[in-house]
Structure formats: structure tokens, C-alpha cells
User: Fold these one by one.
Assistant:
Number 1:
Amino acid sequence: MRNVGKIMIVAAVGLGLAACANSEQASTLPVGGSTVSVKEAPASSAAAPTKSAPTTTKPAASTPAGPECTVADIKVDGAPGSKPTITVPDTCSPPKALLSKDLVVGTGAEVKAGSTMQTHYVLVTWSNKEEKDSSWKRGQPFPLENVGQAQVIDGWNEGLIGMKQGTRRLLVVPPEKGYGQGGNGIEPNETLVFVVDAVEVS
């Protein structure tokens, strides 16, 4: 009987260790074929508008009810040639379509499919109204090649066409044209608000 008791204790300890191991594995997510620890993932990692591998599905971020906002509801401050400030309203819900508005109209070369351009941008996320990324903070423009087919989110490939050099454009990007299920520090089903400057177009 004593031996049976010892065997049961050893088995219980073994099960406990296995549970700890499984718990540790649950704290990692597969990203692009490799495993990244959730604990190590920074909460505010840069969210440059490049495409990223999808992550696990989470519930949509909570957003205000009511009518959909328009670009006129979003406030942008700051002079041309300097970093803008974006204020997302909390009195209406995020738009479901890609929206754009030229805040400053340039007179230089026009962005067409296949164009190369240098951009300055600021990104604010709709649900928490936080600035997530800015090329201004890095002190240099973000380069973009082959607009329309560039390795960036669809909201940029579609939304930058027609800009002229010197233009400052407000872009509101719905989740399906942004990061969808999340990535690059962005929560799933997030609406993105960009102000993009066409610094140089060729």
C-alpha cells in the first residue's frame, strides 16, 4: 500500500509539471512560421503601413454607437511641412469604407499606379485614439515603391493614388483594408486614421 501511495504522488507531480508546460506554451503565438512570446511583444510596437502576418482572432475593439463618422468629423492640426495632430471624434462610429480628404493640395507630380514616392505620415487608431506610429518621430520619410502593388496595406495602395507631390491627405482605413485581424502592434478589427504627406513623387 505504501508503494501505491508513492506511485500516486509521483503521478500527480508529473501531471502538475505537464500542466505548467502547457500553460507556458499557451503564452506564445505563431507568427510567420516562427513562435513569438506574447509576454515579450511590446504593447506599442511600430505600426508602419507594411503588410504583416495575421495573428489570432480577438473580439472587435469597442467603438461608439451612432451614425458613421465622415472625414469632416476628424480634426487635423499642424502646418504643412510639420507633424500633424489627429483628433478622432467619440460621438460617431468608425466609417466602414475607405475615406480620404486632401487637407493641402500639392502641385507636383501625381501619384499613379507604379509610382515611387517618399511619404511622411502619422497613424492614430480609432478605438483608443492613440498615436501608434509616425515617420516624423524617426526623422525621415517612409519610402514607397510601385504604388498600387506596394508591400503595404490596401488602404495605402488604393488611398494614395491621385495625390500630387506636396499634398497632405487624410486617410480613414477600415479593418479589411488595414491590418484586419491585427498585427504590427494593432488590435484586431481596428480602424486606422492616417495623415500622409507626399514629400516626393516620381
Number 2:
Amino acid sequence: MESAAPALFSLRDASKRFSNGTLALEGMSLDCGEHEFISFLGPSGCGKSTALRLIAGLTDLSSGQLDWHGAADRTAGNRDLGFVFQEPTLMPWARVFDNVWLPLKLIGVKRAEADPVVRQALEMVGLSRFAEVYPRELSGGMKMRVSIARALVTRPRLLLLDEPFAALDEMTRIKLNNDLLAIWREHRFSVVFVTHSVYESVYLSSRIVVMAPRPGRVIEEIRIDEPYPRGEAFRTSTRYNTHCTAVSQALQGGLHGVDIDH
């Protein structure tokens, strides 16, 4: 599956079998280009999160190959890669500033040196006024914004997001979709985004990788050739509905005859 843009990384025939024998992912190949927005779409158990963790270096390949272009190594500890988990995973005892500072602190950047970078990251997600509050004082959407700021504070080339908005209400989710697209367009990093929502994947993505379970595998790749910025006009358009229908049909086709409850 090749990208039109110069490749940032390439995944070739990647498989992951866990120690209990479960084959979580089988034969996945993917090129991710510079400034692409790719979504992994599929039901639970289709290997979306496993693929994301393989790219991040949080778990090892059982077979296949992951190549980073223009660098010898990219791992979750590398500043060129940011990861946003399903839960914000914030330190409850630390203020927002210190939560966002953490990735820089871990690589030895002092607080004073980090200050302008942290504040810029908070400004990017609309939380400039909340640097000194604790996570318990924030809404769910604001906590996720802090998590995104923390992932962006190292100014990564690649941002990985594992269903970050799944637990949020629809209004908050739409707002964060729009904000994420605005940040992505301005700062021009690449995104790999995991979701189980057809509508979210079509709205956000330049390319959707549709996956099916048992074992986790890619069944189709669909390009969304629509201009950015995207807004309410696109979300309510016939074109959007057509894309959603095509993606939904691809997803349902891959699930034909698969029992996803067991």
C-alpha cells in the first residue's frame, strides 16, 4: 500500500502473535508519507491498536519489517514520534504544565528551557490559561487536549493516536476533530489515527486503512480525495455521505461471515 508522498516509514508484511498464541495481526503492509493523515478503521480485535504499537516500538514484530526513512531508528522514546492513548493518562498530582513538560523532562530539558515550548503546545490545543491547574479540575475533553499537547511538545514528525475521542460526547468529539485537523495542517506532521467510527475516519483522513479481525488484517485502502480545511459544509455534503457509504460497505464486506463477538 503505497503513499503518494515521500515515505516517512514503511511496514512490510508485518505480523504479531502474542505469547498466548493469538495472531493479532497478519501480513500488514503500509507506507506512510510526510504530512499524511491515515486512519486505521475496524471493529475491536482487528489489530488496529496492535499495528499502532508496532509502529511506535511499544511491541515487537513477530515477522515482517518496519523501516524508517531518513533515520536509523524511531521509537516511542524518540522526539520525532508522539503517542496519544485512549485515556489521557495524566499524572493527577501534577499541574497541566508539568504533565506536558514530562517528555522533555525525561530527556533532560530543564523547566526554564522547556517553558516556551510547553506554553506553545498548550496554546496549540487552546489551554493557555490552564497551565497551573490540576487534571481533576478539567473536563474529559480538556484532559485529552492536555494529552495531545504532551505528545506534540517534542514537535514530532509522526503523531499516533489510539481512539483518543471514543469516550467523549459527540459535540466535544467534533470540536476536537476540527482542532486536530487545524493543528495538523499548520504544523505538517504525519498522523496515524485509530478509530472504529466510519464518520470520523472519513472526516479526518486523507487515507483510510480498513481492517477486519480473526486474524487482524487489512481488507481495503480507501483514499478520501477531498480538500482541507474540512468543516460543517463537508460533514453535511453529499460527497461526505458517498464516502461514508463506500467505507461502510468495505467494512461490512470484510466482516461478512466473521463473528466479532467471540
